[in-house]
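Title: Prediction job returns without error message
Component: structure pipeline
Severity: low
Priority: P3
Assignee: unassigned

Description:
Job completed but the reporter wants confirmation the result is attached to the right record. Sequence as submitted:
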Amino acid sequence: MFNILVVEDDKHIRRLLEAVLNREGYTVFTAEDGDKALEIMDIQQVDLIILDVMMPGKDGYEFTKTLRDAQCMTPILMATARSQFEDKKKGFSLGVDDYMTKPIDTEEMLLRIKAILRRAQIVNERKIRIGELVLDYDTLTVTLGEEKQTLPQKEFYLLYKLLSYPDKVFTRIQLMDEIWGMESDSSDTTVNVHINRLRKRFEGCKEFELVAVRGLGYKAVKKV
């Protein structure tokens, strides 16, 4: 089973999360601040971190930066009372994988944890398999049955992103920021162009389809 590290300075929240996670079969370690969490990670393999922001000593942002600067890519679910967009933007820019606001809905938390762990396994393997379709991140190739093709970089990253989160709707701006970069001069219509190219490439593919969600953006839907 997976090991989860809860980093939270409020002992009541810490105990609640520990109890909920234990009940679900996870092995749980707890720390009241970032420094203690680092000590635990020095001696214990951790699969996912649930992280508060406002803590004494090393706060959640500093803790995240410390891990990512050290090339530690352990998934992080940030849980905090800070709900402003700028706070979320800062967390994501530092490398957190998901974000929840307090008070924490434990059922939602468990769903997010399962999704993060599933995605982490995809990232570690760097391949996505859906039926006879295989996307290989390292070679930018898509194999369907016996047919194999190498996609242009941006097209591949766009398809890989959408298929990593099936049924999740991404806005054009979200996709632009992640794949083209926040400093890109391209407009969000670039996403439309690349989606249309992907649809044409895989118009006969029975494994998935790329769906436009009116007024929002796009999502990938698995068909097998």
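Comment from assignee: result matches the submitted record. The radius of gyration is 19 Å.
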